[in-house]
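Input record (one chain):
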Amino acid sequence: MPILSLPDPTRAAIVAGLRHRLARLEGLPDARERGLSLGLEALDAHLPEGGLAFAALHEIAPAEDADLPAAFGFLATLLARMPGNAPLLLVLSARKLARCGRPHGHGLASLGLDPARLILVETANETEALWATEEAVRARGPAAVAAALSGKLGLKASQRLLHAARDARVPLFLLRAAGESVATAATRWRIGAAPAPRDRFGALTGWRWLVALERCRNGRPGEWVVEFDHVTHRFGLAAAMAGASLARCGAAENKGR
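The corresponding structure, as predicted from the sequence alone:
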């Protein structure tokens, strides 16, 4: 009996198959369940399976200390993209965002996040915040858990959080301070504030951030200037930056000075 010859698989198919097998070995859910699209092809193309992994830990930090509100805003937009109606849980220590104010319903809504869906847990200190974060993930009730944790997060603690997220198959977003990092993070985002677009009356039409994907397991790092429309609740590339890298744009700007 002749042996049927199958067409050679493409490189993309091979890579996709390997990623799928690796995910199963690591205890991650099926690839069809893992990708949380950001709704912007330029960013999604850098992420494995075209989106953020669900059963994983994702780190978000400001580029500088003054960019903390921008980093929090980016975090809120990610939470807002979570499908379904299950609650979203945010853990804050009493002093983490004190200098920036407290989360406000109107502000969250402008970032696409329904305040009625968000459960806010405020703790007295970082130790309680870390404990509350892990317990929230292991509860398996929320669609996603986010926490603002400052200070050094040891390898053992970060591994416990990662295993909790994998077991519960939910994404865990950690808002960190500038210069900090989490060893077990699947993605690491650095967010900086950029001058926001305005309408002809001078009113803000959205937010603009300098978004750097510094680390992406099974994906590719990248940098973009991203706009967020507070009416459509969608990401977009800043018009002047679309199709151009930050490095090229920065060089052109310096040359013109």
